[in-house]
Design goal:
Largest sheet: none
Structural class: mainly alpha
Strand content: under 5%
Distance between the termini: 21 Å
Order of helices and strands: HHHH
Low-confidence stretches: none
Helix content: over 70%
Number of strands: 0
Oligomer: single chain
Mean pLDDT: 87
Length: about 120
């Protein structure tokens, strides 16, 4: 991948993390729509799916196993830290369901990356 394009994903990844922690630092951020699944959980899922997409694009030249290990570290630590940092913020609370939604977004992107890697290896062989 061209260095300039890779740099864009580098900046997008870190800007996305800053946006994530900024939004989760706002006391009692209202959600406009209530639904059975919860717009909040869909937002968590989507936000982390996009986060891992940016991470993948900035590191797609890495070997799949190395990339997977790094993404799994993100899977474990970033959602947990995101929820823990909300505890002292008024109107916010720690939610295991938010962590699950975050992790599901990451796992779906891992599956997409795996399929892409598998397809690439099949075509090359």
């Amino acid at each position: 991948m061209k260095k300039k394009k890779k740099n864009i994903y580098y900046y997008l990844f870190y800007l996305w993390i800053i946006l994530l922690f900024t939004l989760t630092s706002i006391p009692k951020l209202p959600t406009p729509i209530k639904s059975e699944l919860g717009i909040d959980k869909i937002a968590h899922f989507t936000f982390y799916l996009i986060l891992i997409f940016f991470y993948y694009k900035k590191n797609e030249d890495l070997q799949f196993k190395v990339l997977l290990r790094r993404i799994l570290l993100i899977l474990i630590f970033v959602p947990l830290f995101d929820e823990l940092h909300q505890i002292p913020i008024p109107g916010r609370h720690f939610s295991v369901y938010d962590i699950i939604a975050d992790m599901l977004g990451i796992l779906v992107m891992i599956f997409v990356i795996f399929l892409r890697s598998w397809k690439k290896s099949v075509i090359e062989n």
